[in-house]
Design goal:
The protein is α/β, with parallel strands linked by helices. The chain contains eleven helices and 21 strands. It folds into two domains: 152 residues, Lyase, Ornithine Decarboxylase, Chain A, domain 1, CATH 2.40.37; 255 residues, TIM Barrel (Alpha-Beta Barrel), CATH 3.20.20. The longest helix has 19 residues.
């Protein structure tokens, strides 16, 4: 079956009476004119559908306790967090800021996990005092540090150990997190992970309940997950310890272009649950609580960013540049990871694509290229361009580079538009111009 660029947009995408793009029944042209651009929109139907699919697949394939915890680093604002908390999700956080947002949004502490390779005292104290479900310890040094903090507080903390299993996955080097040279986790190969289990089990103030690993992100192969799960189980067995909880992280891929694999979650979930069940059966162990940590899978496709075209020009070598009013400040992924995207005109999404175009941002960096090569119809100043699959790691990694204002972010349901984040404005008294 021939795929269309519309297959990358949210599930509620449609064409309005003029042939222009709409999401949840709302014209993207009208939204852009009212709220300005760059403009990010999130489709409620896509998010709720993704969550339901993941939860249903887990329930069908895993006959024991389980949980789906959203990876907040994909995108987390108070408005988004409140909606996710109402959708039967837990959350994993990596900073005091994300933890406080999770608290205010209504997440229950027993469904919150604190990650990070260099947690501050403030991060750890807040997690211990709130009573989060697990602090995911990342090193032997952090294990000792957390134990001292808990002794000072006279409070016991539930912990997991993050294990680095020495597995390479096929993704960009910056998205690989489980290889032997990773900055994350306790290495397995040199005995640090085993030592972590021994020390944690001997501690008066730490309650070790589980093991965790994370292979990386935008992974489309199931075998590394199966290998990682068996590695965690074998590590536990070597210490004569049966974990109560197990998490192989998240990281399953989603398509950003029509050339990418489709990234359906079913193969991933079936492989992960199958590996845990088989590994525990071989050892005669009860099934642990299984926790998955999807982030990108939940919000990436739900998001669309709309830009306004400004300058168009042809370079001396023939490269045709189209510059838009956003770029690396709201989406640094192309500059960081050479991430691939596609785009279309908002008012002519299905029009013939006739010109090879380099879509660039407005920022003072040569690397500010949103799409190095994409075929688009003719564009001129004032036209609107939509980029799908914009819901993950754009806004979360955004900046005020060149003192650019962060864009407005909307939540769309049929007949309803709500603001998740208002557009920043460089007004007098704001941080741009204030004393």
């Amino acid at each position: 079956m021939t795929r269309s660029i519309l297959d990358l947009f949210p599930v509620s995408v449609s064409l309005d009476a003029t042939g222009s793009l709409a999401v949840a029944g709302h014209s993207l042209t009208a939204l852009a004119r009212h709220y300005g651009t760059p403009l990010y929109v999130y489709d409620a139907a896509t998010i709720t559908g993704q969550i339901a699919q993941i939860q249903d697949l887990l329930a069908q394939n895993y006959p024991a306790a389980l949980d789906v915890t959203y990876a907040a680093k994909a995108y987390f604002s108070l408005g988004m967090a409140r909606r996710l908390a109402q959708l039967n999700l837990g959350v994993d956080v990596v900073s005091l800021g994300e933890l406080r947002v999770a608290q205010k949004a209504g997440f229950a502490p027993e469904r919150v996990h604190l990650h990070g390779n260099n947690k501050s005292e403030s991060d750890l104290l807040a997690a211990v005092e709130w009573g989060v479900q697990a602090i995911v310890v990342d090193s032997l040094e952090e294990l000792a540090y957390l134990e001292r903090l808990c002794a000072r507080l006279r409070r016991t903390a539930r912990i997991w150990l993050r294990v680095t299993p020495g597995i390479h996955v096929d993704t960009h080097a910056y998205r690989q997190t489980a290889h032997p040279a990773s900055k994350f986790g306790l290495p397995l190969a040199d005995g640090q992970a085993a030592e972590g289990i021994r020390r944690a089990r001997a501690s008066q103030w730490l309650k070790l309940t589980g093991l965790h690993t994370h292979l990386g992100s935008l992974v489309f192969e199931v075998e590394p997950y199966c290998q990682a799960i068996e590695t965690l189980l074998e590590l536990a067995a070597s210490q004569d310890w049966v974990p109560e909880e197990l998490s192989p992280g998240g990281g399953w891929g989603v398509p950003y272009t029509l050339d990418d694999p489709q990234g359906e979650p079913q193969p991933w979930i079936e492989a992960v649950t199958g590996a845990v069940k088989a590994g525990c059966a071989r050892r005669g162990w009860p099934l642990p609580k299984l926790l998955l940590e999807p982030g990108r899978m939940i919000v990436a496709r739900a998001g669309v960013v709309i830009y306004t075209v400004g300058t168009t020009k042809t370079a001396a070598d023939g490269t045709y540049f189209v510059a838009v009013d956003g770029g690396m400040a709201d989406n640094p992924r192309p500059a960081l990871y050479q991430a691939q995207y596609t785009a279309c005109r908002v008012d002519l999404p299905n029009s013939p694509v006739t010109r090879k175009t380099t879509l660039v941002g407005k920022f003072c960096e040569t690397g500010d290229r949103l799409i190095p090569e994409v075929y688009l119809p003719p564009l001129e100043r004032g036209d609107l361009v939509a980029m799908p699959v914009a819901g993950a790691y754009h806004l979360a990694m955004s900046s005020n580079y060149n003192l650019a204002a962060r864009p407005a972010v909307l939540w769309l349901e049929p007949g309803k538009v709500q603001t998740l984040q208002p557009r920043e404005e460089p007004h007098e008294g704001g941080w741009w111009l204030g004393e």
